[in-house]
Amino acid sequence: MVEQSAEVAIPPVIDSSPLILLTKANLLHLLQMFYPKVLVPSTVAAEIRQYGTTDVTFQSLSQTEWLVIVETPSLPESVRACNLDPGESAVLAWAYNYPQTEAILDDLAARRCANSLEIPVRGTLGLVLRAKQQGKISSARTILEQLRQSGMYLSEQVLNQSLKLVGE
Q1: What is the pTM of this model?
Q2: Which sequence spans correspond to the domains of the chain?
Q3: To the nearest whole number, what is the mean pLDDT of the chain?
Q4: At the fourth CATH level, which superfamily is domain 2-123?
Q5: Tens digit of pLDDT for each residue in 41-96?
Q6: Quick one: pLDDT at residue 9?
């Protein structure tokens, strides 16, 4: 597939929220189902490091070879105008500076900003649904419930609509 080869060539860039959710739910491996390498802007890494060395996301970031910390580029005015938090802005700045880079973000305002800048975007929910659609996981419901138990907000309505999309 053309889409897969593009993903291999251009690693996605991720925000702290999806990283935190995936590590807390012990599901970080979902990222590796699609990407051999995932970029973490230094601003996002600094946010995660604030939680301390005993934090599971801090430990994953420190010990996972394929999570690659990259220097945060300067913020283009178009990203700055979205008025997002520093981590989200760093993710979008990276993706803006490296066209066709997928931004992995959960925050609605950040996703809207990405869309307005024509930056490809996917959230944690989208990652799970894609894994189900491609047969990489047997049950999206099980994974989504695990994420909800780890702190992901997902209403029953959105959960049910999403599961319907993947035949569950």
Answers
A1: 0.90
A2: 2-123
A3: 92
A4: 5'-nuclease (3.40.50.1010)
A5: 999 999 999 999 999 999 999 999 999 999 999 999 999 999 999 999 999 999 99
A6: 64
Residue 118, token pair as written in the block: 């024509």
CA atoms within 13 A on the CB side of 106: 17
CB-based contact 130:32 (threshold 8 Å): no
Q: Could you tell me the end-to-end alpha-carbon distance of the chain, in angstroms, rounded to an integer?
A: 25
- Ordered alpha helix ranges (H), the chain: 2-9, 16-24, 29-32, 42-49, 56-63, 77-80, 86-97, 108-116, 124-133, 140-149, 156-165
- Long-range Cβ contact pairs of 145-151 (< 8 A, separation 24 or more): 146/25, 146/26, 146/27, 147/21, 147/22, 147/25, 147/27, 149/25, 150/21, 150/24, 150/25, 151/20, 151/21, 151/24
